[in-house]
Amino acid sequence: MVDVMCCEENVSAYLDGELPPEEALAFEQHLRSCARCRESLNQLQALSGAVQALPRPSVNPWLTAQIMDRLQASQTVSDLPLTRLLRSWGLLSLLAFGALFVLFGPVILGFFSVVVKDFFLLASLVVKISRQVPPGAVNGVTGLALLAGALVAFYGFGRIYATLSQEELIS
Amino acid sequence: MVEVSLIEQLQRGDIKAFEKLVESTRQRGLNIAYGILQDPQDAEEILQEAYLQVYHHIGQLKAPETFRSWFGKIVTHLALRRAKEKGRFKTIPLEDLPAAGCSITEGPEYFLLKKEKQVHVAQTLKTLPDEYRAALILREWEDYSYQEISEVLDIPLGTVKSRIYCARKLLSKKLIEGGC
Ligand SMILES: [Zn+2]
């Protein structure tokens, strides 16, 4: 007679002590009369013993020190007031970027597609114009401001990327 | 558990407590990572990464007494991700797994261990699908309960039961086929 008890999955769970108490009791009762399940249990037990006996590497004694070093290295950087400020800027620029995109998304995309498509045309135009601009204090300052603006925008994108990739960490 | 007080100290920002926590849990973490990756170097790298995550996310651990499964989850996920990236072992496609209910007909003498058999078991363990090996390793090496394994792997309790059974089944089948 094949009992409902004759289920190897249950034998495996019994071996792990994972059957509910009443089921375990019933299973033990069943074991007395079922040679097949006794055999399965023996085999699973032997296999389990074999896996448990497998060698494992032991921890490298410097592991803790290495972890502490990495931690302190990341902390000295992240605890500087400047980095904290910059990190909050990252979040701010993300918000600013989001707002800008919601408001002027199509315009921004259109602008970038023109920049990408006609890059050489645009670049030569910029060079031509800048050659025609007479050198002077006002023009110099404007040029520097534009350059600084471009750098800040570039940096902002970097911060946005960093913020986004940080969010991806394990929950 | 010793860890509970260490975790509470760590959550208050005590870095010494973190050091002690690493000391007391690192072998366990290494076993899990190594069990999944089967490469000591990779396992150690993953473990370092896992501890950095532990440090940075310890605030999210609401109940310190669940550290064991929380930590196991971090290590297991990182190790499984690394295993996937490397895809170095030829594993059995899931559909080829044996149906539950078929029985092992060969005798236990197949698993009696001598050194060379141990190597053979280790080699065969490598060929199990990563998720199956992970469940079995958590159970056999680190004595995780089915409940803990279900939390670590994000699968229902019933699936843990069948996955561990399938892992054993598959392992014994391959050991026998391997002619050992
Ligand atoms: Zn039976």
UniProtKB/TrEMBL annotation, chain A:
Residues 7-38 form the Putative zinc-finger domain. It comes from the Bacteria. The keyword Cell membrane does not apply. InterPro entries: Anti_sigma_zinc_sf (IPR041916), Znf_put (IPR027383). It holds the Pfam family zf-HC2. The keyword Transferase does not apply. GO terms for molecular function: zinc ion binding. Belongs to the zinc-associated anti-sigma factor (ZAS) superfamily. Anti-sigma-W factor family. This is Anti-sigma-W factor RsiW.
TrEMBL record, chain B:
The keyword Transcription applies. SUPFAM superfamilies: Sigma2 domain of RNA polymerase sigma factors (SSF88946), Sigma3 and sigma4 domains of RNA polymerase sigma factors (SSF88659). Keywords: DNA-binding, Sigma factor, Transcription, Transcription regulation. Residues 122-171 form the RNA polymerase sigma factor 70 region 4 type domain. Residues 21-88 form the RNA polymerase sigma-70 region domain. GO terms for molecular function: DNA binding; sigma factor activity. GO terms for biological process: DNA-templated transcription initiation; response to stress. Pfam families: Sigma70_r2, Sigma70_r4_2. It comes from the Bacteria. InterPro entries: RNA_pol_sigma-70-like, RNA_pol_sigma-70_dom, RNA_pol_sigma70_ECF_CS, RNA_pol_sigma70_r2, RNA_pol_sigma70_r4_t2, RNA_pol_sigma_r2, RNA_pol_sigma_r3/r4-like, WH-like_DNA-bd_sf. PANTHER family: RNA POLYMERASE ECF-TYPE SIGMA FACTO, RNA POLYMERASE SIGMA FACTOR. Belongs to the sigma-70 factor family. ECF subfamily. This is RNA polymerase sigma factor. The lineage of its organism: Bacteria, Bacillati, Bacillota, Clostridia, Eubacteriales.
